[in-house]
Specification:
Order of helices and strands: EHEHEHHEHHEHEHEHEEHHHHHE
Shape: globular
Number of domains: 1
Number of helices: 14
CATH class: Alpha Beta
Strand content: 15-25%
Largest sheet: 10 strands, mixed
Number of strands: 10
CATH topology: TIM Barrel
Structural class: alpha/beta
Length: about 325
């Protein structure tokens, strides 16, 4: 089995977004040898560069070139800065690039992320598309924007981009955490205005009747390497018992057998008899861990809570985006 690998070359960023999960207390970096060492130690299907703005790493373009020379499928998640700073040659090495949009208007986006960010991300989408690189708009669904996602989706589609949604995880603050009702209201509104390409958000998939069988890869098919050199099953996992230097000896089998990866695969007792457990696996492991432990059901699961949630939705033609293999996420297309 090969892995979808998420790598943060650095946690440095030109912005200081209030909802971000990265630790700004110190700046860390991986070097070229660290990154190629991951590829030597593990069978790698794809690599996503995220966490901070990777273009702030002094060896960013050299690392991208080295990964491209290995034939690794590459994607980049950015606020627009790294795409703006990348050469055409470097951008063309990516199969996909993603930019973050949190609100559907320039004024709201710039108020949240900083002046000029809206125009930067729109220019990034236009440039990537012109170079033949697939562009995706990524939104984190959270308390202040959960009612606005269909509007953001229309912005993405008008710009010629895909649209992908992650659910906010309270790594550093609960201020943006959705309530149960907000979580489902957000998806209900979004599904009413779009078509669903696919989802690895386990609780959403379960409520829809599990039409998508691939499930979340966390703890199973994805590995995250932080700028500090920690190896974790999920980007929101806050502890680690593996380091970069352990990978060569551990290999893929050793990583999956580590206590934290086993913990990420743990299914709560309350979920074991559920008809959707084979694809849901008890919900999002990172979210459960942050909410008190993987021994508990996912806090957004209506089945575990005895709540009734019904959604009207329509499927879209299937398409493959690299990030759907490495995150609890959902992809949407125009209605």
């Amino acid at each position: 089995m090969d892995f979808s690998v998420g790598v943060g070359l650095t946690n440095a960023c030109d912005l200081a977004c209030a909802h971000c999960y990265r630790d700004p207390s110190r700046i860390d970096r991986l070097d070229l040898a660290d990154v190629t060492g991951v590829c030597d130690a593990l069978p790698v299907r794809s690599v996503n560069l995220g966490t901070g703005e990777n273009g702030l790493h002094p060896d960013y373009e050299a690392i991208v070139a080295a990964l491209g020379a290995r034939g690794v499928q590459l994607s980049l998640t950015s606020n627009g800065f790294t795409i703006e700073r990348s050469s055409d040659e470097t951008l063309r090495r990516f199969r996909e690039v993603e930019v973050s949009i949190d609100f559907p208007t320039e004024a709201e986006q710039d108020a949240f992320r900083g002046p000029g960010n809206w125009r930067r991300v729109m220019a990034a989408i236009e440039r990537a598309t012109a170079l033949g690189v697939t562009a995706t708009v990524l939104t984190v669904m959270m308390k202040p924007n959960h009612r606005r996602l269909a509007e953001i989706a229309r912005v993405a589609f008008a710009a010629g981009a895909n649209y992908r949604v992650n659910v906010y995880q309270p790594v550093r603050t609960d201020a943006f955490t959705l309530t149960f009702d907000e979580f489902w209201d957000g998806f209900r509104r979004l599904l009413a205005g779009t078509r669903l390409v696919g989802t690895t958000e386990p609780i959403l998939n379960a409520v829809l009747g599990a039409p998508f069988t691939n499930g979340s890869g966390c703890g199973r098919r994805t590995v995250r390497v932080t700028p500090r050199g920690d190896v974790v099953p999920c980007v929101y996992w806050t502890t680690s018992d593996l380091r970069l230097e352990d990978l060569a000896a551990a290999g893929g089998a050793g990583v999956l057998a580590s206590p934290q990866f086993e913990r990420a695969r743990h299914v709560a007792d309350a979920c074991r008899a559920c008809p959707f457990v084979a694809t849901c696996h008890g919900g999002c492991a990172g979210r459960r861990q942050l909410a008190g432990g993987v021994e508990r059901p996912d806090p957004y699961c209506p089945l575990a809570l005895g709540r009734d949630v019904r959604l009207d939705w329509a499927p879209a033609a299937s398409r493959e985006l690299l990030k759907t293999g490495s995150a609890c996420t959902s992809v949407f297309a125009p209605a």
